[in-house]
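User: Metallopeptidase family protein, Microbacterium dauci:
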Amino acid sequence: MHRVARPDRHGRHGRLDRSSVVRPPLPAIETRAEKFDLTVGTAVEFLRSAWPELRDVRFDVGWMPPASDADGIPRWSVLADQQRIILYRLPIERLARLHRADDLHRRMMIESFVFRAAAEYLDRDPWDLGPDRFRF
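Assistant: Predicted structure for Metallopeptidase family protein:
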């Protein structure tokens, strides 16, 4: 007797006909650029929630500054007339001197540049921007 193979509705592991809503989890953030963008974004969210003057300021991430200045390679540019701050990823990441090269210290270093750039925009001391954030 010859059996006709019926189409398998569930596949070998019972997962063939699942809806498109069920997807595997998103891949983890892998690249340095993605981690940098995420760190900048979270620091900017904090600053905007604490300082209304920064709510309309555009924070951009640039690759490299157009040129060096008298102090060397800038880590950020503040364009107050355009309400814009540009953070340069490569100088921040590659020219930093971390005493411990781990994710926590890298994140703290990136956040410090975001705070310094915002402080320059506001003409304040960086420590004034989040005084409770650094008090333990």
